[in-house]
Design a protein that fits this description.
The chain has 712 residues and is an alpha+beta fold. It is built from 20 helices and 33 strands. α1 packs antiparallel against α2 and α7 runs antiparallel to α8. One of its GO terms (cellular component) is transcription factor TFIID complex. GO terms for molecular function: RNA polymerase II general transcription initiation factor activity.
Amino acid sequence: DRQTLAAVLQFLRRSNLRESEEILRREARLLGDDLGAAALSPAGAGLQVGAGGDADSAGGDALLGRVTAASASAVGGNVAAVASSSPGLLLYANVFAVGGGVVVEDQPDVSAVLSAYNQQGDPTLYEEYYSGLKHFIECSLDCHRAELSQLFYPLFVHMYLELVYNQHESEAKSFFERFHGDQECYYQDDLRVLSSLTKKEHMKGNETMLDFRTSKFVLRISRDSYQLLKRHLQEKQNNQIWNIVQEHLYIDIFDGMPRSKQQIDAMVGSLAGEAKREANKAKVFFGLLKEPEFDVPLDDEDEEGENEEGKPKKKKPKKDSAGSKSKKQDPNAPPQNRIPLPELKDSDKLDKVMNMKEAARRVRLGPECLPSICFYTFLNAYQGLTAVDITDDSSMIVGGFADSTVRVWSVTPKKLRSVKTAADLSLIDKESDDVLERIMDEKTASELKILYGHSGPVYGTSFSPDRNYLLSCSEDGTVRLWSLQTFTCLVGYKGHNYPVWDTQFSPYGYYFVSGGHDRVARLWATDHYQPLRIFAGHLADVTCTRFHPNSNYIATGSADRTVRLWDVLNGNCVRIFTGHKGPIHSLAFSPNGRFLATGATDGRVLLWDIGHGLMVGELKGHTDTIYALRFSRDGEILASGSMDNTVRLWDAVKAFEDLETDDFTTATGHINLPENSQDLLLGTYMTKSTPVIHLHFTRRNLLLAAGAYSSQ
């Protein structure tokens, strides 16, 4: 835009950078001095490019941070300005200063963000602009209409906020009332927040508003539809809308057929639109790590194997039994030493052997052979059950409660015992074979242990794979690590300042992840009191967290209605999945590491191909929030549990076969979901009045479910 251009040219002239000035003039097709001098602050005070003010419709997809350069230090420097192919001129100013007088600020502060809404058009015409565009889109060809209708919502929000910011309250109110009914039903919650912002002052501290402002709303549109829109807005001289499109929207243009209404509806609905296609291009090592090799004693003592079920065993193995796996390295697996993993202890190896024995007796599930389901109902849970977890060997179950307690039960005949006191331990013969048995204090044996320590409801619980530790996270902002040997709290991890909604141990132990109201997920190690990684990027609460089976990645679901996949090694976000229409409350990786299932308040389960970064399925059937998802041990069946008091079983093999993941689909997002997911539904199981909040497949593929009876 001319003013910015004038400012840059004047700066170049003042710094005697004639050559750069000429290049810029040529690039911008401005020859001679036909640019009026723009008012600039006196030399030395510096230059502001594109930070709020009228000067910032410069960028089609990026605005310059704020570049403040003391002119003295920039003499002899070099300012490069590049004209981009995006609509409008995009300036990249690289100011190489001698003596380093350059400050570049990336973080938009509130006032700069809001000042982008300074007066640009006649407030009385906003309704006319919007209804004009609406009329144009509704009268365009069917193939373009579906794509262009995506513009309605972001334009509606930005135009409304612009009116409010400029204190045209009555115009804003009538604009809202006239057009809010036209928006898609899945934006209702956001519109409710928006309708409460009626004065400029309300906008200052409103996070939703700021998110909407700072993150560009992403729309994926075919080139044909985009050209049509651009032509219309330029013919109509409708600068108001064109400015908003350029400034606040990111239009991801693809070549090819426009997408259908169904294809668009499947992918949209998150707080900031769809994910840019670039966001899902990074390589992800979704394969499994090679199992450590050790000898399995082949014993015929099957009867003994039966009663070993209750012994305290260590270390949870990976989802696939090592015995049945060939020892070849998976081509998609990360290098074995990509992230440091804890060494296997003898007890871990013992447990792996136990697991192989169990796996040999595992039931092969399928449409013809569904699992039995055992439901643990928490009765009289007047404390309010808020979280459940079950150990990998299904020997213990833990409940987190709203009265801030954590309760651990043994679900085998073997009672829970704690270690003897130090005085008693000193009397034990440490060389004896059954020393591990002797250190336990029989007097403390009980079916239930209650752990006190949190000062708010406990929202997440997770057993360590070796069953020595238990994690719990709470509204009080802490994550606590408890010992299951002594049933006492070992550490309180403080990092989140707000409620922590979920936590989970890595499948290899040692690492764990937590996510909370502060919109970030944190990666921890049990022996560090500060987080090792902070995963920031979600625009609302991180509501659930899950480790990938190879422990190199973490998936997080959020109230911004997106799922992100993060790389543990460097903290980068490598996948963004959009498509849910409500906050996400459950995540599950398939045992082979290739797929991810996600469930949300919209009652849909979505299936994702991690390698290609694509949605590959949608399972409809639940009528309320899905709080639990779990794949069977070999990945044949996906179980989902919901607040609608049902457990549903889905055919995962069928859902993932014959996937169309060719390059075209990946490039454009033309996903073709089967019309009907009913043929994937293998069974629906009702409880009387118990919402399902946890699911777990035992090592032999018996499905355990848990929830608290609610007397309506």
